[in-house]
Amino acid sequence: MKLTLAFALAPLAAAHYVFPALTSGAGSTPDWSYVRQWTGYYTNDPVTSVDSLDIRCNVDASSATVGANTNTLSVAAGSTVGFTVKASITHPGPLQFYLAKVPSGQTAKTFDGSGNVWFKIFGQGPQFGSSLTWPSSGATQVSVPLPSSLPSGEYLLRVEHIALHTASTAGGAQFYLSCGQINVTGGGSGSPGPLVAFPGAYKATDPGLLINIYYPVPTSYTLPGPAVWTG
């Protein structure tokens, strides 16, 4: 019975994915060295509740203990940073990146990411046609250019891929996400915003989270969360 169940669940786990390492001009970091290692990362399981603290950085990854055990990567404003994907993005849905600036008196290692501190720097929806196609499908690495006007300092970098294959009922969207720790150098004097909190930025009934992506085929799509700050 247990063996049968394990075989039944194996394809489901294989279809899931994680973001374990940062990428930059210097290449990829070791897994879970600059990315906060969340509890149960080896299951590849998604977060499904937008009201849970897990929606911020994944399971238990907002804790000071996890942050303290994570390194912080120095990257230049205007450069490109990203995450590796293991094994690859296999579900349909949008890709988004957020940043949260570490408050004065704290470091990326000690910051839990609480409060209205998160701003979006990238959001990628579908291409429309006889069916929806998603540019991130099959990706083994995803990246984003940091705005040149981004102020210098330490940040939490949050990647999020939202799987919508079961999103036709509220709570059906699956969130695959991780938080990395970065130190931005050579920054500018921009004022990032709008600022949101996780949890709090999304509702399960947001049109970008409660949607049937198959039939009738949508002709528009609204990304969840705030507008993108481009600098």
Q: TL;DR?
A:
The chain is mainly beta.
Beta strands, count:
9
Order of helices and strands: HEEHHEEEEEEE
Oligomer: single chain
Separation of termini?
56 Å
Strand order of the largest sheet: 3-9-8-5-6
Overall 3D form: globular
Secondary structure category: mainly beta
Overall mean pLDDT: 94
Helicity level: under 10%
Query: Radius of gyration, Cα only, in angstroms?
Result: 17 Å
Detail the poorly predicted runs: 1-12
What share of residues are in beta strands? 15-25%
Question: Helix count, per DSSP?
Answer: 3
Sheet with most strands: 5 strands, mixed
Give a description of the structure.
With 231 residues, the protein is mainly β. The protein has helices spanning 2-15, 54-57, 64-68; strands spanning 22-24, 27-28, 73-76, 80-84, 95-101, 118-124, 141-145, 153-163, 174-185. The strands form 2 sheets. The protein has a 5-stranded mixed beta sheet with strand order 3-9-8-5-6. Strands 2-1-4-7 form a 4-stranded antiparallel beta sheet, with no helix packed on it. A hairpin with a 2-residue loop joins strand 1 (22-24) and strand 2 (27-28). The protein is globular and about 50 Å long. The chain starts with a helix and ends in a 46-residue tail after the last strand.
Task: Please name the defining characteristics of this protein.
231 residues; mainly beta; 4-stranded antiparallel β-sheet; disordered N terminus
Secondary structure layout:
Layout: H1 2-15, E1 22-24, E2 27-28, H2 54-57, H3 64-68, E3 73-76, E4 80-84, E5 95-101, E6 118-124, E7 141-145, E8 153-163, E9 174-185
Parallel strand pairs: 3-9
Antiparallel strand pairs: 1-2, 1-4, 4-7, 5-6, 5-8, 8-9
